Structures are given as C-alpha cells and as structure tokens.
Amino acid sequence: MMNEESIIKVLKENKDVSAYKVVSTKTSSYELFYVQKKLETNRATDTADYSVTVYVDQDHRRGSSTFSVYPYMDGEELSAKIRENVEAAKYALNPYYPLPEKEEAKIPEPDSNFSKKPLKDLIKDVKEAVFEADYVPSSSLSATEIFLYDDHTRILNSNGVDLMYHTYKGNIETIPNYVKKKNDEYELYKMIRFSSFDKEDIVSQVKEVLSLVKARAEASVPPSFKEGTKVILEDGESAQVFRFFADDLSYARKYNRMNRNELGDCVQGENVTGTKLNLKLVPSYPNAMDSRAVDGDGVVLDEVNLIEDGIAKNRFGSYRYGYYLGEKRPTGEVPVMVVKEGTVPFAEMKKEPYLRCVRFSGMQLNPNSGFIGGEVRLGFYFDGEKEIPVTGISISGDIHALKGAIVYSKETVTLPSYHGPKYLEIRGMKIA
Hints:
globular, PmbA/TldD fold, alpha+beta, eight-stranded antiparallel beta sheet, nine-stranded mixed beta sheet
C-alpha cells in the first residue's frame, strides 16, 4: 500500500524530478441520505488521498504537473505516472520559482466542537436540527443529505517541509419543495456549510429556505419598479463584492499587471460616501469551513491586514508569485476574508423602496470591465408600501462607478471563506 514515504522514495529515483510536493489527506466521514424524513442510506468511510506535484527545471525555468496517487498502486505504476508527468511539466515552463523552505511552527487544532463527540453521534444532532425546522405549511424537504468530515492533511516537499493540519467540515444539502396546487410544485436547492455545530443556526437556515421556496412559488414579474429603487445584495453575493477588492491586491494580479490599485491607494475611489472598507485575511474564523493553518504549498499562514479604512495596506498570494515580486516571506493563500461590519441595521435599509436579491442564476462581477449583475431568480421588491416576491428580472451596473457608495449592514454572516456584512445596499443599478 502506498503512503507518503513510499511515494517520496520512488520520486527520488527519477533524476528528471528537480523538486516535488506530496499532499496526503486522510478522511473519516459519516453520511446520511434522506427522502422526505425517511432515512434511505447511511455510510461511514475512511479514505486516504494523495496528490503529487513534480517540478522540472530547464534553462532557469520551472514547469510542474500534478497527479493523484491511489493506495492500491505499486512502485512500477507510480514510476510510470511520474515519467508521464515529468514530460507534461516540460511543456509548462514558467520563470523559475523555489518551493517553501522548512519552517518550525506549532499548528493549532481547529476551533470546533466536532471533537466533543464521535461523528456518528454528532450527525444525529445535525439531523434533529434539520428536521426540527421542517414546519412551513405546504413546504417540505423532499431530499436531505448530511455529511460530516474529519480531515488530517500532511504536506511534504523536497525542501524539507513536513507539516500536518487538522480540519472539520459539515455539509447539509437540502432540496425543499412547495406544492402550490396539484401538479404545480416548486423546488430550491441550498447547501449549508459549517465547521462547528450550531443547532440554532442550522434550524434558522433550514426555516429560511423552506420559506423561500414558498416565496418562489408565489413570485411574479412586476410591471415596473419605482424610480430610485436601490438594490440589496446578501450572503454569497456580498462576499463576491468584497472578493473583488481583495483579489486586486493579490501578488498574481500585480505580477501580471492586471491590478488597478497600488499600496496606499483608496480602493473605493476618490469620493467615498458609503461605508469605509476594513478587510483582512485570516487563516481561521469560527465556523468558516475553509479555515486552515497551512496553505497548499506548505506555507504556515498568518493574518494579513489588507485594507484599512479603504486604503490598500498589503498584498497577498501564493509563494510562487510572492517570490516573483521579491517578497521576503510570501503570505501564502490565506483562506478566510473578514470584513468589518457597517453601522446601518437591515431594518433601516428596508424603510425605502428596494429590490433584495436572494437567488441569482449566477451573479457576475468582472473586475476588468466593471460589469456587476445577473438574472435574479428570486427577490423581494418593496415599493414603499408593501413587499412582494419577484422573479424573472435582471440587475446591472458598473462596480467601478458604484463601489464608493456601497453601504454595509450591521448584521453579519459567516460563510466557508467569509465573515462580514450580510447585506450590501447599492444605489444606481439598472433594474430590468
């Protein structure tokens, strides 16, 4: 059976391999699959996955190729796989860059209550929280799948890096449906992701999606929108807007001359009338599922203060692109974005006409053209007197023109790689 040491032994036998990286992930999982509230399948697994990257150096350039190794493979099969990927790496040469060096570091355990119970017991608590919320008349969960994972990841490279970190993950896939009348049913899909069990949060999210599927069934295309109607984005779309600001400060965008802002610039433009942006990147945040102490190259991660009161303070990114820019210690790919909340409560945002966008077919935000928008599959329109569910409309605008006037909510939300304002208020977008 293959393991990290046996893989490295075979890698060292190939003289064309200039450097290597081996990432192993050993996972214990427990899974439940329901149709309505009937358990159809339960499953426990223990797996080991290996990802190998070979690096080939030629003429002061470096190429790489990544492939999977399976525990059942023998030495000959692995040798053949290495030779195949060495050849592939020769056709993907880039300016030379080193791999991270060995670094002494104490890797913290994850901030999670998963460790307090075996997964098979904890998953029962998750199931009870899901079905406690199943209460909306004419709405029900037609299918529910629950997954809990306990991952141990080890990263080794030819420069002596040998680091291990531990993560917990939980996924709940829900498909609620609403029966409007006979042969007239509506469905939505929602994935709930978490790294620590919070019963109240799970109950709240399931209740919300059951209410939303009812709203989707009742939604219609409004004949018109009141002039001056503002747009309210929420959750993942809010995070997408903040990622636009963060990504512009990546090493890669700077190296490729695609960045718009330099350090010291106000990333929100010259005239900021909305909330001033304070954004940092952190390795870990409570219940943010993408939290991890080490990035995929083996860089031990620290907090990066990226934007302060709208002013760009630092850059971030992979070890490779940090090396290209001459960084003494590249930050690595820090996984969680934390944005300071605003001061305006959501209730205040709702006092004048708005379109709150809840489900998109896929919101687009192009940092080069500035286009922001998409088709709204489900929203709520308030005309100043009443709120109605709406569908079949679109929004569009120029993020570069709008970015300085965006108002952030006091309420926050935690997603896999984001903690920050739940709602964003944007004026001046076109609604059609």
